[in-house]
TrEMBL record:
UniProt main location, coarse: membrane
Xref: InterPro entries: Transgly_assoc (IPR007341)
Protein name listed in UniProt: GlsB/YeaQ/YmgE family stress response membrane protein
Signal peptide: none
Membrane topology: Multi-pass membrane protein
TM region positions: 25-49, 56-75
Amino acid sequence: MIGFIVAGLVIGALARLVKPGKQHLGLIATLLLGLAGSVIGGVIASALGTGDIFELNVLGFIVAVIAAVLLIGVAESLAGRNRAARSRAVR
């Protein structure tokens, strides 16, 4: 379980490095998006027959980082909409 959390942090951090621009996400959001990306990467790698979902393999790691980058983009767009709605409500 601890290894899964560490992998999620590493994958989330790598995804934030790969994604251009500044992300307004905290450590917990990075961890959660990295964990979600690692699960997605593990499922896809397992479906392709490269190993079990909980095994660390190259294809699963690459897919996990890509999935985390996409998830960070979605999280940023949702957060941006919420910020814009709040700023309009304040005016």
